[in-house]
Design a protein that fits this description.
Length: about 280
């Protein structure tokens, strides 16, 4: 029933309306009450947030909050691969040829997730799927040190990425809108795939001001930077923002990475070591 319902409802329209509402500057007393309820409902660590003088101006201002210095400690070592988000590890391991594991007994195509010539570099590589709950910190950070060499915006649907649908709808992550960051290291390529979802008002990049998802008029756009445009990045540096929670899928080129072993549902925080570069 959930799948039928999600096929019918206007997911993009609902998400854009939610995004507009989140930008409304509610009166302070009302916004504080909403935020207090939200924190209790979803277990937000409010004491970690950087609260601006005068408080948050809107729900979106709160959703995209920064955290205090010292909350996230980035693992040391040039070879460390770190978590990009405060999130839950849903799947991780080997990419079997072109197939990535979505849920138990359910796989999907790497080349559908990443319809680019660069997909070939991830055949038989490694992957990790990270789910951000509504209560998690919504900024996205680099898993490795290297150079940002480009991005790929792929318009798509906005199905929910909750477990109820992830276990039913094959190729869900390759159907939804995606915004992908390419990071080149001296040992290979990493792709940080930010997946859109219903009620995610938009996804934005911290290094590109004019790339925003979930607009009325969208087009597929892949950009590769010239040598002068390439951006140096360190593990733990911010690269993007979810305007509410969703999913990040990390792709690692074949032979470049060894991932730690995690049980399904393990919670990780930005900067925590999740693997190492060979």
């Amino acid at each position: 029933m959930n799948l039928i319902l999600f096929r019918i409802i206007p997911k993009g329209f609902i998400s854009r309306i939610f995004g507009y509402i989140a930008l409304v500057p509610f009166p302070g007393f009302m916004l504080r009450g909403i935020i207090s309820w939200y924190c209790g409902k979803y277990g937000v660590k409010y004491d970690e947030a950087v609260v601006p003088e005068g408080g948050f101006r809107s729900l979106n201002h709160f959703f995209t909050r920064k955290v205090k210095d010292g909350v996230h400690v980035v693992a040391k070592g040039k070879k460390a691969i770190v978590s990009t988000t405060d999130s839950r590890i849903d799947q991780h391991g080997d990419i079997d040829g072109d197939t990535i594991m979505q849920a138990k007994g359910l796989g999907y195509s790497l080349k559908q997730l990443l319809p680019s010539k660069l997909a070939e570099r991830f055949i038989d590589g490694k992957f990790m799927t990270l789910y951000l709950s509504p209560g998690d910190y919504h900024r996205i950070h680099s898993p490795v040190s290297g150079k940002i060499t480009g991005f790929f915006h792929i318009p798509g649907k906005l199905y929910t990425v909750q477990e109820s649908l992830v276990g039913k709808l094959r190729g869900l992550f390759a159907i939804n809108e995606r915004l992908i960051t390419y990071i080149e290291t001296d040992r290979g390529l990493v792709a940080v795939c930010k997946i859109g979802a219903i009620n995610v008002g938009k996804i934005s990049l911290s290094y590109e001001d004019n790339v925003i998802t979930n607009r009325f008029f969208r087009r597929k756009r892949e950009k590769f930077y010239s040598n002068d445009e390439v951006k140096d990045i360190k593990a733990g540096d911010e690269i993007g923002i979810f305007n509410l929670g969703s999913t990040v899928i990390l792709l690692f080129e074949k032979g470049m990475a060894d991932l730690e072993t995690f049980q399904y549902g393990t919670k990780v925080r930005v900067g925590e070591k999740i693997g190492k570069i060979r």
